[in-house]
Amino acid sequence: MKVTGKTITAGCIGRIVIFRDSKDQRVQMARSIGRLLKGFHGLSTLPELGVQLNHLPTCVSLRTASVRTKVALSLPFPPKPRDFSLPNSSWGPEMLGLYEHYNSLCEVETEGGEKREGPWQRLPSYNRSLKYATGGVYLSKIIQSKARLFTRNMRDPGAAFEYVLFVNEGEQRCVCIFQAGHLLEGPPGHVHGGAIATMIDTVTGTHASQLSEPVMTANLNINYRSPIPLGSTVLIESCVDKKEGRKTFISCKVTSTDGSKLHTDATALFLSIGVSHLLLRE
Amino acid sequence: MKVTGKTITAGCIGRIVIFRDSKDQRVQMARSIGRLLKGFHGLSTLPELGVQLNHLPTCVSLRTASVRTKVALSLPFPPKPRDFSLPNSSWGPEMLGLYEHYNSLCEVETEGGEKREGPWQRLPSYNRSLKYATGGVYLSKIIQSKARLFTRNMRDPGAAFEYVLFVNEGEQRCVCIFQAGHLLEGPPGHVHGGAIATMIDTVTGTHASQLSEPVMTANLNINYRSPIPLGSTVLIESCVDKKEGRKTFISCKVTSTDGSKLHTDATALFLSIGVSHLLLRE
């Protein structure tokens, strides 16, 4: 396969930059691809491509002045990743009702009948973190390729974490509707404290990263007030207390869906992190 | 089936107390069994047994003076529950080495060549919480029957939480060897903060419940110092700070296996709970 164009689009996950047809660069980039994908699946057809992968793509589309060629990589995931925050058959009436309520606030109609963005925004959610070429160098390729986001690692709908996040930038608020599946048990019939901590980390961390660069959790301080029955739906609401340099302070509470019962409250501290060291230099 | 003995052994999970052949008690207990198991599986053969189930057994063994009869219940799990804290093929050399180290301290040889209990004790670990007759009454039977302990809900060895706990009663210390599987990802290539919180809750909670009655988590305060690479093995050590009435205060740290790197430290507060209301009255 010969590549004569200058740019390459696609990868549903990542951005790909193609180089001019310099032999050295081509060989170098072919090696990068080989390093990235070796042990992941047999990719013997691609070594002639002179591309630089920042993220692991699921398909590659090559465009020259007149011709567009698409190469699907035989990865074990579908090319279009599943958005786990959309309704599925496991969602109960409470979860669905609240989803529809907040979803209806994501788009508003103006007086002229036009549709525009509303105060709330639904955040999509996938089961893979982005993979960086130079990230996780000490991890075996097998672990890298099989890694899945902790809260989205189950294929069986409703078995574990079912949740959807909505963010309101104007009010600096975030709301998560969370339905706790049967695989999250801690005390008999109730949700594990670690599963609740996981959702609090997820909601507050997502909220903090919406406001700035990517963040890392520095502290979680969680008070468990009342256990959450397994199978039930609860609301997790977070709001920003303050921002100081790299620090973002967030508070959070978990309540029954009508807000009458407080299950858990927490504070969280996040630190912004630079990500430039994770990216290949161009 | 007629039961003439006074005691009943077995059930791999629970203790069973048999009553004398009083008709009233027999009927009452048959109803209890029916309530416990209805919707769980068809158990039409047992209503004549006059037994009181505190926990859900997987098999029942009846012993009179001369005859022993075993009744296997057709539960969807193996009669002997799997102990998840024993080595499996996914354990790496670090995990195995540390397991063997602490396991060797569970039994010591006296000068006379006799073997006796050592200072450490390995704690077995199963994937089901005990089910109580009157617990979780608001849960659907489907959720109850499918419920699994959060940290042991994966069948695939090595995919998520691989861990084993050792407790030293004399020193009031607990050590957990934890190998983080590929399904626990948070930041790319690293363990999710919620998965770390889950292990801290598990270790400190198990430790607290070793010292007193069953406990519930009241507070977790966790400082994340350094991320844990996915696939790596770490040590989680907890020690009791103090006990005040129903409160147990525990501190905990997560380090590299040689103790040189501090990944996380935490404090935890647990409240003892009475469980008498969860048991049938005898």
From TrEMBL, chains A, B:
Q: Which UniProt keywords apply?
A: Apoptosis, Cell membrane, Cell projection, Cytoplasm, Fatty acid metabolism, Hydrolase, Lipid metabolism, Membrane, Mitochondrion, Mitochondrion inner membrane, Transit peptide
- Predominant place of localization: membrane
Q: How does it sit in the membrane?
A: Peripheral membrane protein
Gene3D superfamilies registered for this protein in UniProt: Hotdog Thioesterase (3.10.129.10)
Please tell me whether the keyword Lyase is annotated for this protein: no
The entry's cellular-component GO terms read: mitochondrial inner membrane; mitochondrial intermembrane space; ruffle membrane
Do you know which Pfam families this protein is assigned to?
4HBT
User: Biological process GO terms, please?
Assistant: apoptotic process; fatty acid metabolic process
Which reaction is recorded as catalysed by this protein?
tetradecanoyl-CoA + H2O = tetradecanoate + CoA + H(+); (5Z,8Z,11Z,14Z)-eicosatetraenoyl-CoA + H2O = (5Z,8Z,11Z,14Z)-eicosatetraenoate + CoA + H(+); octanoyl-CoA + H2O = octanoate + CoA + H(+); decanoyl-CoA + H2O = decanoate + CoA + H(+)
Q: Where is the Thioesterase domain?
A: 189-260
Tell me which domain of life the UniProt entry assigns to the organism this sequence originates from.
Answer: Eukaryota
RNA-binding among the record's keywords?
A: no
Q: What class of enzyme is it?
A: hydrolase
Could you tell me the EC number(s) of this protein? 3.1.2.2
Q: Which residues form a coiled coil?
A: none
Where located?
Cell projection, Ruffle membrane; Cytoplasm; Mitochondrion inner membrane; Mitochondrion intermembrane space
Q: GO molecular function: any one?
A: hydrolase activity
The entry's family comment says: Belongs to the THEM4/THEM5 thioesterase family.
Question: Which PANTHER family would you find in this protein's record?
Answer: ACYL-COENZYME A THIOESTERASE THEM4 (PTHR12418)
Q: What is this protein identified as?
A: Acyl-coenzyme A thioesterase THEM4
The gene behind this protein is: THEM4
